[in-house]
Amino acid sequence: MSENFVIDRENLLGKTPSESAVEMTELVLPNDTNLLGNLLGGRLMHWIDIASAMAASRHSNKIVATVSVDSLDFRHPVRMGELVILKARLTWVGRSSMEVMVKVYAENIKSGKTALTNKAFLTFVALDDNCKPTPVPSLHFETEEEKKIAQAAEIRHLERLKRKSKEE
Ligand SMILES: CC(C)(COP(=O)(O)OP(=O)(O)OC[C@H]1O[C@@H](n2cnc3c(N)ncnc32)[C@H](O)[C@@H]1OP(=O)(O)O)[C@@H](O)C(=O)NCCC(=O)NCCS
Q1: Which is nearest to 92 in space by CA: 138, 57, 55?
Q2: Does the structure show a pLDDT above 80 at 67?
Q3: Hey, where are the domains in the chain?
Q4: Nearest-5° angle of CA 135, CA 45, CA 33?
Q5: Which atom of ligand 1 is nearest to the CA of 163?
């Protein structure tokens, strides 16, 4: 870690996960669906990327780049006309990287019923004006639950780096 990196980081005020949390709601329209009238997986992945990038940008006050998306399971289909609610929240930060957890819910407008359909973890890197990784504020946890989630996130981060170095 360079000396400048440490000095830069010390000048940044830490933030809580709540300060950067994002909630984004989308209505599933015909153009978002496949031939069965279910939400396209690719469209949902796009929304997940956008919601989580907004949380990472809010935390860092920087432009961010997606560097990793963990596996994504589709638990049940989302139908045309339903609402998709994406809740994105920071779980862990490194020096320039941030993990964001996104939970996706489908809401049926007529019944008012809501179901969790997906959960995903994405990693973003904050970039400076030269598109180089730049330090991000530390993450201040408000609850024991947030601390536990961060411990698990640290393990996921190490796994991703292992996977990356194997691929290289
Ligand atoms: C973002 C980018 C500039 C970073 O460059 P890099 O050479 O990987 O930079 P570094 O090796 O210094 O890594 C920067 C940080 O990213 C983390 N990182 C890099 N690859 C990662 C991966 N696959 N998974 C998790 N973290 C990763 C590193 O651990 C490091 O974190 P830290 O600063 O918190 O310790 C470069 O990876 C890039 O341009 N990637 C493409 C991004 C993109 O096009 N995304 C899609 C559109 S947004």
Answers
A1: 138
A2: yes
A3: 8-167
A4: 155
A5: 23
Percent of the chain with pLDDT over 90: 86
Atom of ligand 1 nearest to the CA of 53: 48
Burial pattern 17-29, b for ≥16 Cβ within 10 A else e, equals beebbbebebebe
State the distance from the centre of ligand 1 to the C-alpha of 18, rounded, in angstroms: 24
Q: Count Cβ atoms below 10 Å from residue 13 Cβ, excluding itself.
A: 7
Instruction: Verify whether ligand 1 is closer than 6 Å to residue 102 (CB atom).
Output: no
Res 2 pLDDT > 70 = no
Predicted pLDDT at 9: 65
Q: How far is the CA of 116 from the centre of ligand 1 (A)?
A: 30
Residue 123 Cβ contacting ligand 1 at under 6 Å: yes
User: What average pLDDT does range 98-118 have in this prediction?
Assistant: 97
Answer whether 126's CB lies under 8 Å from 62's CB: yes
Phi, psi of 154 (to 5 degrees): -60, -40
Domain 8-167 has CATH 3.40.190.10: no
> Mean of the pLDDT values across residues 126-146?
96
* From 63, 66, 67, 132, mutation site for ligand 1 pocket: most ligand atoms within 8 A of C-beta: 67
